TrEMBL record, chain A:
It comes from the Bacteria. The lineage of its organism: Bacteria, Pseudomonadati, Pseudomonadota, Gammaproteobacteria, Pseudomonadales. This is DUF692 domain-containing protein. Gene3D superfamilies: Divalent-metal-dependent TIM barrel enzymes. Signal peptide: none annotated. SUPFAM superfamilies: Xylose isomerase-like.
From TrEMBL, chain B:
Residues 6-86 form the Putative DNA-binding domain. InterPro entries: DUF2063. It comes from the Bacteria. It comes from Marinobacter salinexigens. This is DUF2063 domain-containing protein.
Amino acid sequence: MSNRQGTLQSKPELKKTAVGVGLRSEHYENVLEQAPSIDFLEVHSENFFADAGVAVDLLQEVSRSTPISLHGTSAGLGSVEAVPDDYLKKLKRLVDRIDPILVSDHLCFTWARIGGRLFHGGDLLPIPYTEDSLLHAVNNIDRMQQYLGRQIAIENVCAYIEFDQSEFDEASFLREIVARTRCGLILDINNLMVNARNGQVADPDNYVDRYVGSLDPFAITEIHLAGSTPVAKEELLIDDHASPVSEAGWQTYERVLKTIGPRPTLVEWDNNLPSWRELLGEATKARKAQRRVFGRECTHESV
Amino acid sequence: MNLSDYQSQFLEFLFGGTRKPELHNAEVYRFGVEVKAVRALEHSYPTVRALVGAAAFDDLALDYFRMIRKQSGDWGEFGWGFPSWIISHRISDRVPYLSDVARLDNHVARVERSQYEEVHVASFNAIGEDLASCSLILNKGLQLFRSMHPVVSIWEAHKSETPKDTLSFAQAKRMIAKGRGQNALVYRAGWKGMAEVIPERDVLLLEAVRNQRSIAEVFGEEVLRDTNFTHWLQDMIAKGVIVGAKTIH
């Protein structure tokens, strides 16, 4: 556990009812043509790691008018291996360029050595929730927070495999990470629902409610919403972010809001992208859900 | 199994290893990562894909991914070694120019991601009477390369959806038949990477400029009176190839 946590700085926070969408390359032109009427935009950090070029220039331009949330997909904070310096260096450069409102990544592993050489798995790979995993996750999160000089947030992932040897349930594991690193949490509601479904949980609503209820609500800095797709006969749900948020997703979102109160909310859509307008429509649905839960006044609180 | 072994073995499995982890649904991850690997190479090597076709490209990309594996957290960096790797692949027997075409794709992609210097107009005031004491400045972001194949024409033709209908395709075909190659200058127009043929003489001149040789040494003492040089320099400045001048000692 770091003894320098007191030095971590966070940027001014978004209003708690802020709603954002993911910005992907297919929508760059839309955003350049007209500053989006959205509270914030989320991008995948690694897509902007280049020294220069169109993506970097565009993001710098957009960040002048719209707050940016940097969401990493590759740090692999649950890896036994330390996140490489080169990765941290590129992330720090991006953070300095963009001055994001949030820096986040996932609770998963990506790095490992094979025959002594370090490789990257290219996906959000699940970890067993053991003391050993906890130690490595805490070390990597601490290291990243110290390197960036700011708090980061960790997101719960979809796991399509189950481990026999887990010593914690996921929520307890996350709670322990927060206690030891003072990082924030991103609560991905779709990932929770996908895990409940794939794990054939008898009462998914109850599973989600218990999960959320056992997290430290003050640690939750953002909520993620997305769609998922069933595949094959077994109807395994895949968290592919390729469809709108399901009706069950919206209902769960409202229940979560009632439990933890308003939180900045992101609608993610990464594959089979809709038009920019349709995507903004999903953000409007999130605002409407907030209004149903909190009423009109609360959703107009100032930054 | 300890955590470190689990993580190593899982990655080996993702990279095509035959030993499957004793975990139900592990192949979901392998499938997902393979799709991403193919997509990343498609993005960086559009001409190679257009040349060999989508199905052959997918096979090629998966062979590369399984053999070389992924070493960086950024998919945008995945595949920088692809051009060299292709040389040893059986497909190069059939398409001997494929590696050089991949190299050109790679240069174009790199130039689009690199720091590209702006032209510093005022710096050209440094060009005074004594051409031996000043040099031109080459943009550090651009790329030059020589190929034994007509790579620029092939690259140009395959930007079209119907490559065979283009003049570049016809030219490439003629040059392949005669065993002639091209030199490529890769630069950026705005954010877009561009490639064009340049004569060997220009490659030599630009290499000399890159080596910071004086204007007198590279072009001769009387070059400022040569209108051809003035036009050449204007063209190079317009493309952002030459970005300034400086005095040297």
